[in-house]
Amino acid sequence: MPKKNKLKDRILLFLAPYLAEVIVRLTYLTMKIENLYEERARRFWDKDERMILAVWHGRLLMVPIGYKGRMIKCLISHHKDGEVLVRFMRRFGHGTVRGSSSRGGAMAMREMLREIKTVDIAVTPDGPRGPKFVVQDGIIALARLTGVPIVPVTFGASRKKIFASWDAFELPYPFSRGVFMWGEPIYVGKKDDLAEKKAELESCLIDMTDQVDRYFSPASGEGDDPSRRRNP
Fold first, then answer.
1. Residues 121 and 112 sit within 8 Å (Cβ to Cβ)
2. Distance between CA 79 and CA 160 in Å, rounded?
3. 3-state class percentages of the chain: helix first, strand second, coil last, to nearest 5
4. 41 with 151: CB under 8 angstroms?
5. Total domain count, the chain
6. Of 5, 35, 141, 168, whose Cβ has the fewest other Cβ atoms within 10 Å?
7. What per-residue confidence (pLDDT) applies to 78?
């Protein structure tokens, strides 16, 4: 690789996580954020019990600041773009586990099995390269091996930029309205059918994401949901 490109990559690696943090924090401060069914996650936070967060790759951006537990470690691929995410997560006080289904998967699984004893694990089940909204096997295997439940979470905004990437990555606009939605915990027992559990998680995340995308539509009527909680 030419030296000019290497220098450009180093500059990007240094600046991108910082800029992303500033954008997320400022955007979060200007938004009206609501939490739907946050008690489904808070029951674990209050008791300091572990959970596996499942969030689509394209909806990950606001999770590090919306998460209210002790700490999460997010599974991130070894791709060069993954290093930007690693540094981004660190700026919010969270950690990472490196690996994916295509590279370093076994080592990543062993590390997650160790880390989940003390922190929550976050997985983008359709990452790192898709297909979008298709759950891969790893998160189900992790839940089965540990007995730790999967808690689905997603995020939607009333106004946002949707990038032309494989995951249709979403960046909410400042001064818009946002909503986190937390799903019921999904347990994977030793005798459970893994394909059925994978389909259950996939269906749950797709349905939740559809709901948050329609949440601010005038016709939805969901703005009067008494179960929602507004962030301070």
1. yes
2. 26
3. 45, 20, 40
4. yes
5. 1
6. 5
7. 75
Burial class (CB in 10 A: 0-12, 13-18, 19+), 47: exposed
d(CA 54, CA 64): 13
Contact criterion met (CB below 8 Å) for 231 and 33: yes
Q: Which helix (H) or strand (E) holds 76?
A: strand 72-76
Which range marks the domain in which residue 166 is found? 3-230
User: What is the per-residue pLDDT across 66-115, written as a single tens digit (0 to 9) for each?
Assistant: 999 999 999 998 776 778 889 999 999 999 999 875 566 788 999 999 99
- The CA-CA-CA angle for residues 160, 25, 151, to 5°, reads 75
SS3 173: coil
pLDDT score for 126: 95
Pairing mode, if any, of strands 150-157 and 177-182?
A: antiparallel
**Does the predicted TM-score (pTM) go above 0.90?**
no
CB contact at 8 A, 170 and 160:
yes
Buried b (16+ CB within 10 A) or exposed e, 5-18: eeeeeeeeeeebbe
Q: Please, what's the largest Cα pairwise distance for the chain?
A: 58
